[in-house]
Every structure is written in structure tokens, then in C-alpha cells.
Amino acid sequence: MANLNQFIYTAADYKITLLFNGIGIPLQTCQDFSSNIKTEEEDIFAIGQTDPIGSKTNATTYSGKLSAQAGEILTFMRLNGFANTLQIQGAVIAVVALANPLLSKIFSGVNVTSEDLNIKAKDKQSLVEMSWKAVTQS
Questions:
Q1: Residues of the chain predicted below pLDDT 70
Q2: Do 18 and 64 form a contact (C-beta atoms < 8 A)?
Q3: Rounded CA gap, 120 and 91, in Å?
């Protein structure tokens, strides 16, 4: 069996940075990051045909979620004069693979679309989860 360890990356192999309003935040307590890249496809029909004659893509959308410790996110927001993460507009999220830059992704034009603060009794942590949409990805 081949040893394919060079293709296996753990969460410790990545660094996530949020950049907005000229300020960069290396998210040191990020618990979860997910991204979704989706293309909208449209079937093309013609008069006299019941089946589509083709299919074309319309647009690509970029979205996702990230969560981090409430203390890190909310303290940063307050210290910089922001009431909540919904004020993050036109930002950049950089997901950098430290061992292999080819795996890095940069999402630009990021707007935070929702913020969820999760505090649970007897829990050891409190998290802020942010949903986001981006204009481009490179």
C-alpha cells in the first residue's frame, strides 16, 4: 500500500485570516470553517422540443460559515468600534495551507450575512458562528 501522507492535511496545517477595513485578524481560536462553491445551471429549451437542448451555467456563488471563540471575535469587534459581525462587509478571508500554498484559497468581497452566538450552560466555551457570502475566490 502506498504512503500518501503528503496529501493529508490536518486543521493545524491551515491558518485563517479575516481582513476588513484595513485590519487583519489571524483567527487563533477558529473552531470550524466551511466553504461552498456552487454554480447555477440553467437548462435551455427550444420550441417543439420536450427535452432540454443544452445546459449553461449562469453564475458561481461562494458562501460558507466559520466559528471562533466569542471572546476573540466580539472583543476585536468592540475594540474597533463595531457592534456586531454583520458590519463586516467587503472583507477578505484567506485560508492558507502552511505546508502547501497551492491548497490556499482567498475569498474576496466577503459580507457576513448572519451571526449566531452560542452560550450553553456548563459548556467550556462560547462560540460565534458567522455565515458569509463572497464575490470571488482565487
A1: none
A2: no
A3: 30
pTM of the model: 0.87
What cell numbers appear for 62 in the block?
461562494
Residue 135 Cα distances to 46, 62, 88, 91, 100, angstroms: 32, 7, 14, 10, 25
**What would the DSSP string read from start to end of 20-71?**
ETTEEEE-TT--EEEEEEEEEEEEE--TT-SS-SEEEEEEEEEEEEEEEEHH
pLDDT tens for 55-90 read 999 899 999 999 999 999 999 999 889 999 999 999
Query: Going by C-beta distance under 8 Å and a sequence separation of 6 or more, which residues neighbour residue 28?
Result: 72
What are the CB-based long-range contacts (under 8 Å, 24+) for 70-74?
A: 70/117, 70/119, 70/126, 70/127, 70/128, 71/29, 71/126, 72/27, 72/28, 72/29, 73/128, 73/130, 74/117, 74/128
**CA torsion angle 27 31 33 34 (round to 10):** -170
If one counts every other C-beta atom within 10 angstroms of the C-beta of residue 78, the result is 11
